[in-house]
Amino acid sequence: MANLTIRNVDDDIKSLLRQQAARHGCSMEQEARDILRRAVSVKPAGAGFAERIHQRFKGLNAEDLPIPKRRAARLPAMPESD
């Protein structure tokens, strides 16, 4: 396991961490590890949406779908000349 040193922690933060650790019946060090573990294991906000899209279409064999022929691009409308 690795060691991590965090410097310049506000006294108020340290006190709150100590109190929270006492409520949970563990050391401040264990409480900090638990907080860090939860913080980094949260999925990014977009992952939920992407996962739902993946789940919806995962049974679809996209390789078997027909690919429509491409049409020529439309040219932009030309302004009328007077």
Task: Describe the protein in words.
This protein is mainly alpha-helical and 82 residues long. The chain has a domain at 9-42. Helix content is 49%, strand content 0%. The chain is built from three helices and no strands. The chain has helices at 11-24, 28-40, 45-57. Helix 1 (11-24) packs across helix 2 (28-40). The longest helix has 14 residues, at 11-24. The chain is elongated. The model has no long low-confidence stretch (mean pLDDT 88).
Order of helices and strands: HHH
Outline: elongated
Quaternary structure: single chain
Structural class: mainly alpha
- The helix tally amounts to 3
The average pLDDT is: 88
Compute the separation of the termini in Å: 80 Å
DSSP strand count: 0
Poorly predicted sequence stretches spanning 5 or more consecutive residues: none
Q: Considering DSSP H and I runs of 4 or more, what fraction of the residues is helical?
A: 40-55%
Q: Largest sheet at a glance?
A: none
Strand fraction equals: under 5%
Calculate Rg over CA atoms.
Answer: 28 Å
Helices and strands in order:
Layout: H1 11-24, H2 28-40, H3 45-57
Features:
82 residues; mainly alpha; 3 helices; 0% strand; elongated
How would you summarize what this structure contains?
The protein is 49% helix and 0% strand. The chain has helices at residues 11-24, 28-40, 45-57. The mean pLDDT is 88.
